[in-house]
Amino acid sequence: MVRVGVEVRFLLSILLHYCPSLGNSAMHRVGSAGNASNSVRPRKEKRLTYVLNDADCTKHCAGVNCLAVSKPSESDNCSYLFTGSRDGTLKRWALGEEGATCSTTFESHVDWVNDAVLVGGNTLVSCSSDTTVKAWDCFSDGTCTRTFRQHTDYVTCLAAAEKNRNIVASGGLGGEVFIWDLEAALAPLTKTSEAADGDSSNGTNGSGNSLPVTSLRTISSSNSITSHTNQPQGYVPIAAKGHKESVYALAMNDTGTLLVSGGTEKAVRVWDSRTGTKMMKLRGHTDNIRALLLDSTGRFCLSGSSDSMIRLWDLGQQRCVHSYAVHTDSVWALASTPTFSHVYSGGRDLSLYLTDLSTRESVLLCTKEHPIQQLALHDDGIWVATTDSSVHRWPSEGLNPDKVFQRGGSFLAGNLSFSRARASLEGSTPVPVYRDPTFTIGGIPGIVQHEILNNRRHVLTKDNAGSVKLWEITRGVVIEDYGQVPFEKKEELFEMVSIPAWFTADTRLGSLSIHLDTPQCFSAEMYSADLNITEKAEDDKINLARETLKGLLAHWLAKKKHRFGSQPSANGELSSGRDISARSITLSRVEVDGNAENDSMVYPPFEFSTVSPPSIITEGSQSGPWRKKITGLDGTEDEKDFPWWVLDCILHNRLPPREHTKCSFYLHPCEGSAAQILTQGKLSAPRILRIHKVINYVVEKMVLDKPLDSLSGDGTFAPGLPGGQLQHSIVGDGSLRSGLKPWQKLKPSIEILCNNQVLTPEMSLATVRAYIWKKSEDLVLNYRVSGR
Length: 788
Prior knowledge:
By secondary structure, this protein is mainly β.
């Protein structure tokens, strides 16, 4: 027993040494890619992602999750529709008699936008799967005024008070519900509280500049409010603590004194939003609660659930007074008339219904092609958001809904969940009142499938309209649009080349997102000749990630030089709490272009469009993840906003240590060949070395009968350098270029083989190893004189 105790204490001491946070904090979901600064474990560096688009950036390219309609403003008497999408952006649409015009895109979230509400007439609040809540100046050009990072998981829903311009509530998958006083939350912070924020707990505004994150208060078991002592000083939102599982829906009364919430616990919780006090818990649904509404007084509550039921609750009596079996599947969206007499509902069954809450009479307004996500009444119409990228407006008679029932086709809603399903099976499916929407704000098809081709520069994509396109990701452009063809077209695009996997990709946002992680992203190199870069020597090696980063940040670098001059300023030297040069000097090796002027030059294969510029998603040492168009960068961004390794590459031309850039191989005469033995040991060369270089090496040794002086001391194969460097190169057909030495004109014709297969001169060592050799041990190449 004593021995076991000693071993346990020993293991605990190791754990606490390498994971000091285990000793004083609970486990939590980590949103950042980096580790704590006091950890001695290998650090996973923050990544840089760029999101590509080739179409109209004024349109959404993924499902629309949320809607908000503003009242006509006094200045221009124009109403605005705000939409939030799974593409990570929000858009403002000016609504006119002839249609809707996108006037602004709000871009800062780095994941799906799940909900949005208008507060106080000029503030837009949004929440996202990136775990943040953001406040925007809704009539600006897309300015994010503050980012709040209290949630530990996806933030799924928001609620605002119609007559209280300051109160907003947010809920998410972590079971957290926060109640915000926006006037206090958005107030300028004192220098004391700003200084207290430190490096790791800041928010970010739309431009990536750091802004302090507020601390939070939680409700203890006795419902008393307590403050976290380890949070910075500043505004403290109220936490309505009680949910043990995910929260999917919130609603608030007009004055903001009452809050209801629901989620996977299948119960409606009621809170006093002024204190976070739990008031009651209402049970009745048999599945997740997905939508909630409160009337203006806070007396009645409507809930929609994945059990397909809509329930009306009397909060004064604390019971369900009516149930409505209208839908045949999950109810995801609810909207009521101003008098709370009728409810519009939609969901997974693709149908939009109008129900009279008193008579229980229901009518099918329309059917959609996609599940309905959210509804917003506007005059006599209703805006409908679905999992599609388009938004439709349908007639609703919201000011006089009885007109709809006068058209006929209504049915009496049952009060049991199976009643509508049974009616549907019996063939009594209602006929929709409306066939077509009155207006549509079109979206563009989102990318749903992708395949990275083995040349590691091209990606094949397919969108949800079936269109197949070929992208060149180092320029961010579509180089071929194949139309609606089978996605298996990728087989026709196969090239026998082996390039390291230097990036990853996904299509979660409906666009093609390219992820760069250090040091893996710096593993791929190509010769300038293979990229048709005429500004450099043919044999110059081009690092694909470095040149891609230069292309992405060319606008930022130009702005930075304009602001601070061509000579590095204090900011240009990245002087901060952590000096990047000092930090990385022991981890990096310098690779400097021989031509200083070319060092910042962006070569054609890496020039990104300024018409449809990609967006960058990344984070630095302080500000948390952010997103912005590359043309929107103003040159002030620094190590607080960018990963240190990105700046080290762009500003100092340093690349991190990389593995597997060399390929070891043996070079022997073919069996039975009379060719002389040129080497005895193992050779090493860059993975990208072409076979024609090996041919030239063999020719030089055979013709000049030189000693093995083309090998460096460690056995490295070194063509291209003085003293063993071959001064000629081979064209695609194997012929020598002009300017040959006399001995070169007499060269024998040499073939290089692997596994008895003759290799083409254009093949690289990496390609031969991957497709011809196909073994884990060192590559073996054989040579012979042609015809023997």
